[in-house]
Amino acid sequence: MLLLAGPAGTGKSRLAGEKVHAFLLKYPKATGLILRKTRESLTNSTLLFMERVVIGNDPRVHHLESKHRFEYHNGSILAYGGMKDDEQREQVRGVGVEGGVDILWFEEGIRFSDPDYQEGSGRMRGTAADWTQVLVSTNPGPPGHWIHQQLMIAGKASVYDKARPEDNPYNPPAYIERLKGLTGILRQRLWEGKWVQAEGLVYDTFDLENLTDEEPDPELPFELAFDEGYIDPRAILFIQKKPSEILVFDEIYHSRHLAETCVSEAVRMSGDHFGIKEDVKDKRIPKKLPEIAVGSPEAKEMQARLRSANIPYRSRPHEIVEGLQVVRELICDGNGYRTLKVHRGRCPNLIRELTEGYQYPEAGKRSSSEKPLDKDNHAADALRYWSYLRAR
Hints:
CATH superfamily of the largest domain: P-loop containing nucleotide triphosphate hydrolases
Oligomer: single chain
Strand order of the largest sheet: 3-4-5-2-6-7-1-8
């Protein structure tokens, strides 16, 4: 696993693209795959870069746009795609002989979730060479991101992040000056190469110490928190209150999924975490169901679906600013104690919202009564509903 991180303009994409191209030329009948989070973003960026800069007019390679791939004279192929939705994922799953890939490049890795990465890297079964490789190229993001946590801090990748924009002789002086002139979070990430949180965050004290690999206690009850949605994502959090902490140990985060589907998934995941009853034939009934589910008062259909699954529903109306304060106390109280713990591997959307997405309209200019922007807050709102009712 090779991670190319650091500031903008250091040649990360060029290195990754050249390596993928050289691999496919050297090893006949090899399969390469380039992924960005969405196929649309790839088409006008990485694809043009590969076509015009890396491959160029090489007569040994032909681009079959209708099949979303390049074909090499030696039988190798370079496919490309996205992981935005089921349609794009299904296309990616069909790449390679028997689904095997020899070399895989995640471009703009900060946009991918950990499940995206696991699905892609789990397909490295190619046999064209006696080795396979996954490459991730990215600019830095929030410190809680899975790339920073799992690949860098946990040491699961060979990391190259020391290059500087001014070290790249192909960068025009004007480009260097533009990077130098950046301010705030963009300067810290794109010029300084730091993994830092964004300004104006609603929960700006959420930190690495709130992340954990801890599992739920099989002997203790657990609960659900949810934020209703359909076009916007519906978020469901799995929460367990322990003697000295509150653990969010899993999440569901879907757009355009019916309430019935999401509740069925929550029941199935309950069985994944706490086991299945052994005395029930042909039925996957969890040993333990959530004791309650907490959400907004307006979620009438979700309430009905939960109750039909024998999961009681609770809600307590409140002002947003009141709920925010309760969550802040759980994240880090006045004495520096952190009650809230979030599973770093299974809750990527909650972590993303807390460390990057959920913000105030203007950083540094808010009052104690100001409401945040109503976006990138679906899992965060689920946590707020639950905290106001159950953590006080």
